[in-house]
Design brief:
This protein has about 200 residues and is of the alpha+beta class. The protein has one domain: Glutaredoxin (3-Layer(aba) Sandwich). It has a five-stranded mixed beta sheet. Strand 1, helix 4 and strand 2 form a beta-alpha-beta unit. Helix 4 packs across helix 6. The C terminus is likely disordered.
Length: about 200
């Protein structure tokens, strides 16, 4: 015989099982989310720098020189150069802006076309007035990046390095030469093409 005010043991057991089941599901979902976000591995330097990059128009208008890198997550050279670029960003914080744009993000298509990106990593260099002063295609060491950054900050000509050149606008070329130069330019493969 049961006492009239004693609780039935079945509902309490059922509530406990439900709590255990919910806790197990929550733990499994937490573990899955942890794995999907990269586990214990910190974000790659490229992703970290891209997330904290200024918007390009802001960087070009704030009175500091800018290094713009076009990159891709799958690019081995981009990933291997990332620690050097991050060290340059840290060393020259407040004097130089570093902006990263991922060529696989369709948001940056206008910039990819504007700067004629046809390989990565492609670096574009801007003076403190936001004017393009040079370009580099391919990997750069810390020493090379530091000499470029120092020249930009000091408003000096870029150092003479293989693969680094100054840029000129098409309107600097006059008359028929401009038409000939534009006609002679053949379309190049895009940075995302693989063939």
């Amino acid at each position: 015989m049961t006492k009239p005010n004693s609780p039935d043991p079945a509902p309490a057991l059922l509530g406990r099982r439900e709590r255990i089941l919910l806790a197990a599901i929550a733990a499994a979902l937490g573990l899955l989310l942890f794995q999907l976000r990269g586990g214990l591995h910190p974000q790659a330097p490229l992703e970290q720098m891209a997330r904290r990059s200024l918007e390009l128009p802001v960087a070009l208008a704030n009175g500091r020189p800018t290094v713009l890198e076009f990159y891709a997550d799958w690019c081995e050279v981009c990933r291997s150069m990332a620690p050097a670029l991050e060290a340059i960003e840290t060393k020259h914080r407040g004097a130089l802006d570093v902006v990263l744009l991922n060529v696989d993000n369709p948001r940056w298509t206008p910039e990819i076309e504007r700067y004629d990106v046809n390989g990565i990593p492609q670096l574009e260099f801007f003076d403190r007035r936001g004017q393009a002063v040079g370009r580099s295609l391919g990997s750069r060491s810390f020493t090379e990046l530091d000499s470029i950054a120092t020249a930009l900050i000091d408003d000096q000509p870029l150092p003479r390095l293989a693969g680094v050149g100054t840029v000129s606008r098409l309107d600097d070329v006059s008359g028929d030469r401009a038409k000939t130069a534009a006609a002679a330019k053949e379309p190049l493969a895009g940075p995302r093409s693989h063939g």
